Every structure is written in C-alpha cells, then in structure tokens.
Amino acid sequence: xxxxxxxxxxxxxxxxxxxxxxxxxxxxxxxxxxxxxxxxxxxxxxxxxxxxxxxxxxxxxxxxxxxxxxxxxxxxxxxxxxxxxxxxxxxxxxxxxxxxxxxxxxxxxxxxxxxxxxxxxxxxxxxxxxxxxxxxxxxxxxxxxxxxxxxxxxxxxxxxxxxxxxxxxxxxxxxxxxxxxxxxxxxxxxxxxxxxxxxxxxxxxxxxxxxxxxxxxxxxxxxxxxxxxxxxxxxxxxxxxxxxxxxxxxxxxxxxxxxxxxxxxxxxxxxxxxxxxxxxxxxxxxxxxxxxxxxxxxxxxxxxxxxxxxxxxxxxxxxxxxxxxxxxxxxxxxxxxxxxxxxxxxxxxxxxxxxxxxxxxxxxxxxxxxxxxxxxxxxxxxxxxxxxxxxxxxxxxxxxxxxxxxxxxxxxxxxxxxxxxxxxxxxxxxxxxxxxxxxxxxxxxxxxxxxxxxxxxxxxxxxxxxxxxxxxxxxxxxxxxxxxxxxxxxxxxxxxxxxxxxxxxxxxxxxxxxxxxxxxxxxxxxxxxxxxxxxxxxxxxxxxxxxxxxxxxxxxxxxxxxxxxxxxxxxxxxxxxxxxxxxxxxxxxxxxxxxxxxxxxxxxxxxxxxxxxxxxxxxxxxxxxxxxxxxxxxxxxxxxxxxxxxxxxxxxxxxxxxxxxxxxxxxxxxxxxxxxxxxxxxxxxxxxxxxxxxxxxxxxxxxxxxxxxxxxxx
Length: 714
Hints:
This protein has 714 residues and is an alpha+beta fold. The chain contains 27 helices and 12 strands. The relative contact order is 0.07.
C-alpha cells in the first residue's frame, strides 16, 4: 500500500471515529446527570431484589392525584384581583353630560315656541316643568352611571360567570387601596346597561307617562355608548397570590429514616410500598444533595453509550462494510438515532406530552428504505435501548417499540407501493395498543386501570408515521440516497434516457431489458435489491447511444464499421461507452447508486475479441494491454456483481452457433468462473451457494429465452 493510500485510509478512520464519537457525545448529553435508579418494580408484582433498606433520609412524596386534589382545594380559597380604572367612569359621565345637553337643546327647540308652553307629542309643558324634567333626568343618569362604575364593569363576562357561579368575592384594587366585594355585585357590560336602562325607564314613566315609550325624550340618548369596562383582571397580582397559596402546599407526607427497611425479597409491591419506592427513586434521581460521585456517574453512562455504538460499528463492519466505507451513510444512521433520542428527551422533559407520541417506527422505516431490513432492525434496537434508559418504565417502552418496529419492517417489504405506509401506520397503532393492553392487564389485573388517554397518544404516533413520505424525499435530496419509489420511477421505460436508448440503439435496449430480467431473478435468490439491480441494468449501456453501430447488437446489415478501424481503435470505441455512459448519466442527474452500475458493469476486464485478434495478427509484438482493458472499478456489491455476470452472459449467448442445454451450461459456468478467476468480485459478499443459485437462474432464464419447450432439470 502506497503512502497516499495509507494516509487516505488513516483519514477515513479518523472521520469514522469522529462520526461515532459525535453520536456518543450527543446521546450522553441527554442522559440525566443525577444517575438512574437501579431497581425495576411493578405494582402488584413481587419485589425481585434483595431486601431494600433506605440508604439515606428521604421524604415520602404524595401521589400526583393527591397533590392535584390539594391544589384544587387551595384554589377554592383563592380570591381573584381586579384593577379599577376610575378615569373610565369620570370620562363617560362627562361624555354623557355633553350628549344630554345637545339632545335637550334639540328637544326644547323642537317642542317649545317663544312665549308658549312646550308641546311634546301632544302634551304641553311649561318652562318650569321642562327645567325640572331636565334636572331629574341628568341627575338620575349621573347617579346611576356613578353607581354602575363604582360596582365595576368587567370586559370578559365568562370570567365573571365562573367567579359568580362559585359564590365568591373579588378584591378590587383602586389606587393604593384594596376593597373586598361580592363577585355578584360586579357587572358585565350587558348587565350594566340593563341596570341603567331599567332605572331610567322608571323615571321616564313618571316624567313622561302619557307619552309612548318610543317617543320619550330619553330614547334620543343611546345609553349603551356610556357603558365601558373599568374593571380588569389583574393577572400579575392574582398569579402572585396563587403562587403564595401553592407555597403552603406540601408535596410530602412523612419521612423515611436511613437504615429503615422499605421492602423485602418476594414482598408484593402494594400501594404503600409503591409510594415508598417511587419516593426513593425520585429523590435518588433528582436530589443533587445526595452524596455521590458525579464523575463516576458520567463515566458509567459513557461506557454504556459507547458500548452501544461500538456494537453498531461491529455489526456494520462484519455485515455491512459498504456502509462504513461511506461517511455520508454512517453519519446518516448516527444522525437519525440522535434525532429520535432528542425527540424522546423533549417529551420526557415536557410532562404534558407522552413519550408514546414519538414515532420511533419512522427510524426503521427510513433505514429500511435506504438500506435493508437487517440494518433497520439493528439500528432500531440500538436506538430504543439507549432511549429506554431515559424513558419511564424502560422495559415497557423497549418492548412496545421493538414489536412496533419489527411489524413496520415486515409491512414495508414493498414500500414503493401506494398506500403501504397507511397500512404500516394502522398496524403500528394496533401493535402499540395490543402490547400496552397486554402489559397493563398483566400488571393491574383489571380493565378499569388501563389509561385510555394512551390510546390517543398511540393514534397520534400512527399519524406521525405518515410523515415518513416527506422525510424520505427530504433525505433523498440532502444525502443523495435513492428510495424504492424513486427506482420505480427511473425504471419506467418512458424515461427520456431510456426512450432515447430505444430509439437510437434498439438492439442495446433489448439487451438491457434481457439483462434486467436475468439480474432481477438472480438478486431475489441471493437476497439483494431487485428494484435497484433492474434499474441499474436498464441504464448500464446508456453510453452506447453515441455510436450505436459500433456494437454488434445494433448491426442490421452486412456492413461492420470496425472493418475500417485498427484493433486498438475498435477496442477504444467499445471501452468508451462506459465513460460516456457515466457522463450522460451525470448530465441527466441520475443517482450515483445507478451510475455505479455503469462504471462497474465491465469491471477491469479486457475486450477479448479485439485483444485476441491483435495477438493473432501481431504475434510477439509489444502491446499495451491497457488499451484493451476497461477502466473499472470492479463491482463492489451483490447487485453490481450480478449485473456484470448477466451482461457478459446475455451478450455472449447471442453469438452462440449452437444453442442447447450443454452450450448454455458451458457458457454460464465458463464466464462466471473466468470473472472470479480474474478477481472481479473479490470484495463482494457472495457465498459459494449464492454463486450456484445465480448460475441456476441464468441457465433457466436462457433456456426459457432460446428454447421455451425445454425444461431445465431441477
């Protein structure tokens, strides 16, 4: 290995280490600094550990139900605070005076002539009567408005109703004084107007009794214009008083002394024991004053997280080395694990949201889309084990998500089909629901204790699974991955490149279709991606669209253009279609994973016909074999290796002078053996059994093509 190669290998190793180290650091950051309670327990089940003695003094915490009940009781004692704006009342009374004087002048002008009595709607008034009417009206309006504004008018009637329904009092802040007042005396804008209108209507009946109500003077004044809220809920003061009340609430109910026995081996965890154990767990995980070495806690967490990622590394190293060879793929896998852990941590911190809403099955769905089922299952298992350390009821969390993840992987065997993700979402909900129901019944022994709200969280989880569609598309664009849905689109023969190939090089197009059929069947037998290999096979000879007549499958006349070229030039024409195909594919923005099939479908083999012809024509002459050798690289996956085999076999089968079982068997065995002897597949994960299966498929397929009536022996 050269120095440059060693340096590249070293840098790749450093990059890989940094990716895994970053994942370890991110997960470690999410772990609680206070450590983890070491014992697992379930209500109604025997204590499966040794006798537990209190390691230190700790309080017995009340249950959430008890604390909430006490909070509700304290809230019954809470008196809300309102701020009274005295300026509002004075301003509206002054506005009322101005409006009254204006309307009164109009009334007098319209109903009294100089030297005569006033006439209003047929009734005559003297000047004295008009003056007394004016004085009494304006006095009544001022007094009633002052009364109403003194009582207080609130802006939000619903808030007032909630208070009055409980027969409480309110505290009114006016300047520097605070007055206590029955809540029932406070008015809404509607009730304030009705109160004012009732009093003024009584007075109007006395003063203008013989006049119809709609023709009375007072009806010319729109009293609702002077009703304005002057009492506002003082949220700051009210919240401060609520906090003061809450400070009186004790979260504990007694103490456990150090050395006191909590529970013994085999003892059933009843309500009282569960309360003690939960109190000890809470104190252990949240109290920073407990004597412990936080450095050792972090060290232990580091060991656990690092081991989890190291196991993931070993898995990829032994079973999916091609993933480790790609920094982008490795980073992506670590990234999605960290993202799921972050989402879980967020729900744990935010107590109003259940961790069951986090769609962990998205992780295996996405990994399965871009890689395979084995990687998806292993990465999912690592992720839920790490998050299980954070989650409450860790075993329940891990078991539920493991089952749901496995179901989603099995469901998405053909995830390019429309609607399959909806099926996966429904099965996810059913998986969570059934497992949760089973665990709850096992723990509680009755249906009444099952928390129905969790099924709503499961339903939300299932709905979030549908976000896999946009996420897959997004990751495809960011990381350059290819999903099965994209492969289906690319494999459509109406794609521009394939239509061009069919038009300019019809023989090559037919060859590509035959190769695709051979590859697809073989890959299914050995456990590869049939969609990927089929799509790669359709595009592998796209470079032949430039000079199609230089390739034998496109010759349709007796003229052979190679007759006018030297052997080296002919070899160059043949070899060039690989590089030219890569250029065309890149220009058309085909995914790199498809372009790899174009690069590798001849590996580093030689153009045998022209190479042998040259040796025959010029025996003993010096010759540069590179002129007859494809540039490579060699195949590096099952799919690319199978394509190389199928391409050579399908092309060679066209030149067979005699086609029968013997010649087909000889052709397939000879080509595959030669390619293996040339070390074309030395880094490909194909076993001897895989090779035999591939040979069998190729032979059967060729028999079906050339001799449909011949049955290939099993």
